[in-house]
Amino acid sequence: MKAVCGLDVHKDSVYLCILSEFGELIEEVFGVLTYQLEKMRDLMLHHHVVEVSMESTSVYWIPIWRVLSPHFKLNLANPYFIKQLPGRKSDVKDAQWIAECTMKELIRGSFVPPETIQQLRQYDRRIFDLNEEIVRKLAKLDAVLQRCNIRLSNYVSNVDSKSYKAVVRALSQGITDPEELVKLIHGRIINHHGKDVITASLKGVVSLAEIDMMSQLRDELDLAEAHKEKCQAKMLEICEREFPEELKRLQTIPGIKERSATSLIAEIGTDMDKFETAGHLASWSGLKPRNDESNKKIKSRSITHGNVYLRKTIIECAWAASRKTDCFFSRFSYHQTQVRKKNKMKVLVAVARKMLVAIWHVLHDNTNYIDFKTDRKPSQTKG
Q1: 95 plus 164 within the same structural domain
Q2: What is the dihedral of CA 144, 146, 149, 154, to 10 degrees?
Q3: Of 18, 125, 311, 334, whose CA is between 20 and 30 Å from 344?
Q4: Residue 146: CATH number of its domain
């Protein structure tokens, strides 16, 4: 007798509904402690459950997945698609509805990577969080300098530059003399703006409290940078041990270096069988244009939702590839922006999508990237 199970996952509880092929229902509520999840697993085994479906509710589904994965076929469903399935009555409980959809084979499970890839994802997304934290700390640090009327940020390319960091380090150590601080500025900046201007921008009124604030923020930034390096080292160690060939092959693609390659492996894995075509991977990443057309009028061509971490990484790679010398992506970007005069950001998204297609083929076919070059020669006009 076939039996399936639907789980409605909450932060503090799990609603279970076991449905047999004859329509028999078993409904219970369990807690989320490990022994309670094991008790729920034993109940499923007792009733010969073969398939379990649940919604991807925040991170609360992950412990349940780990307890159940060795014993059942599991489906992780997007809550949006569950709600869109037709035929649901208003009085049907969520767990029962998930069980009924599972019995009728209406639920298509989302991509859940293996344990090694999940570990890589934790490090990768921690790096993204640390990057955001560093940006916030730098903004706070610049606010302290502005309060002291030190206007160096007006003359440097960004507040993460070496010159800016050197001045902050000196200020946090109590060095406030502009003549001493200007010696820490890169010569190119001084030549561009003039020594007198830079010296004037470094003259301010700095209190002891502000020196302490700069010292604390600098320590926090150093700690965040150290954590970033540690996470990246862990990712590289795992990739070199588990996916050495894939790591090398990805770096043959223009614009992709070590950091980007490890991030791509963390987000999409190395098994491309999960994505039937390169287009499926592009769609999953959120780089597929939305086809919103009604009555022959195009309402929207914006990109869809998808994996935001993958999208951030591949957009950065596309930006780098667009500036490479004589590669397919840079030639495409130049032709679209300079010849056809298209929007630069839209072209960047198009380059990112083309790079995802290349990534899919490199991982699917187990081959290095081969740059596409046209063999056509310019036509000669007869005089």
Answers
A1: no
A2: 140
A3: 125
A4: 1.10.287
DSSP state of 49: E
Q: Look at residue 298 and tell me whether its pLDDT is greater than 60.
A: no
pTM of the model: 0.83
pLDDT in tens, 318-331: 999 999 888 899 99
For residue 271, is it within any domain?
yes
**Is 108 inside a domain boundary?**
no
- What does the DSSP 8-state code read for residue 4? E
Of 121-130, 189-198, 323-332, the range with the lowest mean pLDDT is: 323-332
- Residue range of the domain that includes 254: 244-365
> Could you tell me if 68 and 52 are in contact, meaning their C-beta atoms sit under 8 angstroms apart?
yes
Neighbours of 133 (CB within 10 A): 16
Question: By C-alpha distance, which of 127, 77, 132 is closest to 105?
Answer: 77
Q: What is the DSSP letter of 155?
A: T
Count Cβ neighbours within 10 Å for each residue of 304-335 and write b for 16 or more, e otherwise. Answer: eebbebbbebbbbbbebbbeeeebbbbbbbee
260 near 380, Cβ under 8 Å? no
What do you get for the CA distance between the two ends of the chain, in Å? 84
How deeply is 128 buried, as exposed, middle or buried, from its count of CB atoms within 10 A (0-12, 13-18, 19+)? middle
CB 345 within 8 A of CB 276: no
Whether residue 254 sits in one domain with residue 225: no
pLDDT value for 300: 46
Question: CB within 8 A of 209, min separation 6: which ones?
Answer: none
Of 238, 269, 295, the residue at which a domain comes to its end is 238
CATH number at residue 31: 3.30.420.140
Distance of CA 1 to the CA centre of its chain: 43
The answer on 255 and 192 residing in a single domain is no
Q: What number of other Cβ atoms are within 10 A of residue 82's Cβ?
A: 20
155 phi and psi angles, rounded to 5 deg? -120, -5
Q: Do 65 and 144 reside in the same domain of the chain? A: no
- What's the confidence (pLDDT) of residue 39? 95
Q: How many domains does the chain have?
A: 3
Q: For residues 148 and 133, state if they share a domain.
A: yes
Number of residues that make up the chain = 383
% of the chain with per-residue pLDDT over 70? 91
3-state secondary structure of 19: strand
Convert the pLDDT of each residue in 54-95 to its tens digit.
Answer: 988 888 999 999 999 999 999 998 887 777 776 665 545 888
